[in-house]
Specification:
Elements (H helix, E strand, L loop, with lengths): L1 E3 L1 H13 L4 H20 L8 E5 L3 H15 L4 E5 L7 H13 L3 E4 L4 H10 L2 E5 L11 H11 L4 E5 L21 E5 L2 E2 L7 H4 L2 E5 L5 H5 L5 E3 L2 H6 L15 E5 L6 H13 L4 E7 H7 L7 E5 L12 H8 L4 E4 L7 H13 L4 E3 L2 H4 L15 E3 L3 H12 L7 H12 L2 E4 L4 E5 L2 E5 L11 H14 L4 H23 L6 H12 L1
Parallel strand pairs: 1-8, 2-3, 2-5, 3-4, 5-6, 6-7, 7-9, 10-19, 11-12, 11-14, 12-13, 14-15, 15-16, 16-17
Antiparallel strand pairs: 1-10, 17-18, 18-19
Helix pairs in contact: 2-3, 3-4, 10-11, 10-17, 10-19, 12-13, 15-16, 17-18, 18-19
């Protein structure tokens, strides 16, 4: 399953037009699919009072014209409302002429017939929104807002074609008075914005119509988002052989913790161990290690000296770098705190570690003012930012005033620095090596301190075991989300803790 941005949809449509299925055929297919969908609704709903299709002047309106013509051809009562005047694109104008020639569809211009249109809202059985398509952003015009406001109060079935008009298919934002739909029939694939609130809820039940795009069409764009499938994740973990031993499953160095955040070191270490890594060494200050060592008996320890604030001192850098030579992965950041000393430690690890590095939390915060240091990595880098950290990195790369949506930021950072970005949020995006995966596992119970530390440990544990950085990030996000869903089921979203997520990991593996 693919998910596309508005810009990607334009590329997909253009590729289709030049490789067999033309723009006109795509519109014909979309309209026919909409008519078929309405017929299926008619099988379980009384639509004898008629179908009201609100059409815009662009190609989304063209889809509505085709649907109206198809429905009228089979004897259904259809009224079309021109919400923004006459069609403005060549394709929509053509389909409008085709609709006019059939002679059985009542067509009203909204601005000239407001009272009549509003009466039809109350009298019709179903209202179809075909005003704006996937490229919409900004605010709805006043007349459309008034129209939608009245329609939403009529208590009728509401169906959106492609996307509820007013929804931003990139960010998931929605303009004021965007219709809350019962159904959305989207064309070709879901749009990335439909995965985020509030647009996700405004879509109602989403169905996808095949209108002729081939897999080659979707593959014609870089960083097309795909659903993270169970089968893909399962394939990454073959059954262990009978003669397995610990060194086959890697050695992780987890550099974490400080005086005020020892729990982050414990959570990230435990989650790495629960993820199957052969050996995990926690590198932290004596104070942190003395506090938590009894809770992580399976871990080995690398005691480090602290600075006056209780964070890892930069005096440890030679010892840390020497230790990384024996590692198959290094994670750094959970509970680290940001100081001149930890900034120096993070930079040294990035520049000198020969194995993959997983950078999280304060590890990320330590480089936001010098993000180009990422270019100095000797191996691959995985970062696991939440939205705030992602914005800080993006602005550090592209300038003080740089703004973008979460997916765009993740893609551009991955492309610019050749890194893997596990962008935490709803949904989770995993970006790298020209690919984007979408993972919808997880729930609001993860909205508490420590959840990110658990994710870091899981991803780092998988990386240390030899999974490619992209595979490790995908599997880590997947297992983290699935374990969180089990924890919520057993304990509730309100009562679950990050430590409970770690306890559920074995059951996800099972």
């Amino acid at each position: 399953m693919f998910y596309a941005t508005p810009a990607q949809m334009k590329t997909i449509e253009a590729f289709s037009d030049s490789h067999g299925v033309s723009y006109k055929e795509l519109m014909e297919n979309a309209g026919a699919a909409a008519a078929e969908f309405i017929c299926r609704l008619a099988a379980v709903n009384d639509l004898s009072d008629g179908i009201l299709i609100i059409c815009g002047k662009g190609n989304n309106g063209g889809d509505g014209f085709v649907a109206a013509r198809n429905l009228a051809d089979i004897g259904m009562k259809v009224t079309v409302v021109l919400a923004a005047g006459d069609p403005s694109t060549e394709l929509s104008a053509y389909e409008y002429c085709e609709l006019s020639s059939c002679g059985t569809v009542n067509v009203l211009n909204l601005n000239d017939n407001i009272d009549a249109v509003f009466k039809l809202f109350s009298a019709s059985a179903i209202i179809v929104d075909a005003v704006y398509g996937t490229g919409f952003k900004g605010e709805l015009p006043p007349e459309i807002k008034a129209c939608f406001s009245y329609a939403s109060r009529c208590g009728k079935i509401i169906l959106a074609l492609d996307v509820p008009s007013g929804g931003n298919c990139l960010t998931g934002e929605a303009a004021e008075n965007t219709l809350k739909c019962d159904y959305t029939l989207t064309f070709g694939c879901l749009k990335t914005g439909m995965l985020s609130e509030p647009l996700k809820s405004l879509c109602g039940k989403i169905s996808t119509a095949d209108i002729g795009f081939t897999e080659d069409c979707f593959r014609s764009v870089d960083f097309i988002a795909e659903k993270l499938e169970d089968s893909y994740v399962k394939s990454l973990f073959p059954k262990r052989s009978e003669d397995s031993y610990k060194n086959q499953f890697g050695h992780l160095l987890n550099i974490a913790g400080s005086r005020c955040m020892s729990g982050a070191a414990q959570l990230s270490t435990l989650s790495a161990l629960r993820s199957g890594v052969g050996l995990c060494t926690l590198a932290s200050t004596d104070e942190v290690i003395n506090r938590i060592a009894g809770n992580i008996p399976e871990a080995t320890l690398l005691p480090l000296t602290a600075d006056k604030c209780g964070t890892i001192s930069e005096k440890n850098i030679p010892n840390i770098i020497k230790f990384t030579e024996k590692m198959t992965a290094v994670s750094i950041g959970p509970g680290l705190a940001v100081s001149e000393d930890t900034q120096a430690v993070v930079k040294a690890v990035i520049e000198n570690a020969d194995c993959p590095v997983i950078l999280d939390a304060d590890g990320i915060n330590c480089i936001t003012d010098c993000i180009d240091i990422i270019r100095s990595t000797k191996n691959r880098l995985i970062i696991t930012p939440h939205q705030g950290e992602l914005k800080r990195l993006y602005k550090g790369c592209y300038g003080k005033d740089a703004e973008a949506d979460r997916l765009t930021m993740a893609i551009e950072l991955s492309r610019e620095y050749d890194i893997i970005v596990a962008a935490k949020g709803v949904p989770n995006f995993i970006v790298g090596d020209g690919k984007v995966y979408v993972c919808k596992a997880g729930n609001p119970g993860l909205s508490r301190g420590g959840s990110g530390d658990v994710l870091t440990g899981i991803i780092a544990g998988f990386t240390a075991q030899g999974l490619s950085p992209l595979d490790a990030a995908c599997a880590g996000v997947y297992f983290h989300g699935k374990a969180a869903d089990l924890a919520a089921k057993n304990l509730s979203q309100q009562g679950m803790l990050p430590s409970d997520v770690i306890k559920e990991l074995p059951f996800v593996f099972k």
